[in-house]
UniProtKB/TrEMBL annotation:
This is Heme exporter protein CcmA. One of its GO terms (biological process) is cytochrome complex assembly. PROSITE patterns: ABC_TRANSPORTER_2 (PS50893). It comes from Sphingobium cloacae. Gene3D superfamilies: P-loop containing nucleotide triphosphate hydrolases. One of its GO terms (molecular function) is transmembrane transporter activity. Residues 6-200 form the ABC transporter domain. Signal peptide: none annotated.
Length: 201
């Protein structure tokens, strides 16, 4: 993971025929993290999708080095499978060993729930399950969309600890949130400063 990188240069985003933001630059190397902030609808999720290569940027460049894991509003876990098996499905695709799933369950305090079908998990437990999927992936670059939503204080602490461990081992974290998070963010990008309307106002 030590050669992981995420670099954005002058990125602009057009969505639904509307310019959302422009001029966003970011340079994260191994161990680097950033928090994207701004009100609902400003384009935080869109920027994460651009970083993930799921949405083209209107202008600018995105460079990624290292595997990528995205946690957004989609749980991406089989609702009918027990949690451990649902995570195991991704672990096989990600070609990580079974120990990665156990470690991720432990990190998110999900061991006691590991044999329950995913559909039986509560909102906060599902969010922890999604974070466990990211942790188990072994990906260097974590893109986390509103990772604190639905989490109680204890779970926010687990999230903060997981992020800190990931950064210590050379990972990169880009999180988007409209609320403050217990993350060691080196860089903060307030998308309001890049909003297309702000420029013309
Ligand atoms: N598939 C789409 N097609 C067209 N417009 C879209 C699409 N998805 C989102 N948008 C629009 O893009 C804008 C930015 O949405 P986005 O989800 O990136 O904002 P956000 O800052 O993450 O918001 P929130 O804090 O509510 O999650 C919104 O105005 C939204 O309606």
């Amino acid at each position: 993971m030590r050669d992981a990188a995420l670099r954005l240069s002058d990125v602009a985003c057009l969505r639904g025929g509307r310019m959302l933001f422009r001029g966003v630059s970011l340079d994260l190397a191994a161990g680097g993290s950033a928090l994207l902030t701004g009100p609902n609808g400003i384009g935080k999720s869109s920027l994460l999708r651009i970083c993930a290569g799921l949405l083209p940027a209107l202008a600018g460049t995105v460079e990624r080095r290292g595997g990528l894991a995205l946690a957004d509003e989609r749980l991406a876990l089989d609702m009918e499978r027990p949690l451990r098996k649902a995570l195991g499905f991704w672990a096989r695709l990600d070609e990580v060993d079974g120990g990665a799933v156990e470690g991720a369950l432990e990190a998110m305090a999900l061991r006691p729930l590991a044999d329950l079908p995913v559909r039986m998990l509560s909102t906060g437990q599902r969010k922890r399950a999604m974070l466990a999927r990211v942790i188990a992936s072994g990906a260097a670059v974590w893109l986390l969309d509103e990772p604190g939503n639905g989490l109680d204080d204890a779970s926010l602490g687990l999230l903060g600890a997981a992020v800190a461990r990931h950064l210590e081992t050379g990972g990169i974290v880009l999180a988007a949130s409209h609320q403050s998070l217990p993350l060691a963010d080196d860089v903060r990008i307030d998308l309001r400063a890049h909003a297309a309307e702000a420029e013309s106002a």
